[in-house]
Amino acid sequence: VQLQASGGGLVQAGGSLRLSCAASGQRFRNYNMGWFRQAPGKEREFVAAVSRSGSGLYYAESVKGRFTISRDNAKNTIYLQMNTLKPEDTAVYYCAASLGVLSTIRDQNQYGHWGQGTLVTVSS
Asked: Average model confidence (pLDDT) for the chain?
């Protein structure tokens, strides 16, 4: 599966952005999907993930209550709605696809397919 992330940009603190990740190829429904981010000078970290069916939603503590992940299997797309953005949310955001089990859904090593990243910059 090939992934294409979009929707990043510059936003003021407290604002909102919606990221999208379109998947091409077959069997999108077979993949758990996740969003990860990498801030300047930091390691890439888990942000959110959604199970194959869309019923399982998982979040990092730092974004819980502010970010919402969703997927549309008919459109082969996942989304990340980001509200109440903070300067510390500034990072390159990557979408990724995993064939792993749900217990490893937060582990980036379980994701075999990655998009190219989209930059989110939150100004204070």
From this structure: 96
pLDDT, tens only, 66-89 = 999 999 999 999 999 999 999 999
What gap in Å lies between CA 85 and CA 103, rounded to an integer? Answer: 28
36-69 as b/e: b if 16+ CB within 10 A: bbeeeeeebebbbbbebeeeeebbbeebeeebbb
Nearest to 67 by CA among 98, 42, 36: 36
CA distance 6 to 52: 21
Identify whether the C-beta of residue 78 lies closer than 8 Å to the C-beta of residue 51: no
Is the pLDDT reported for residue 26 higher than 80?
no
Phi-psi region of 61 (alpha: psi -120 to 50; beta: other; left: phi over 0): alpha
Whether 34 and 95 have beta carbons less than 8 Å apart is answered as yes
Strand duo 91-98 + 77-82: pairing: unpaired
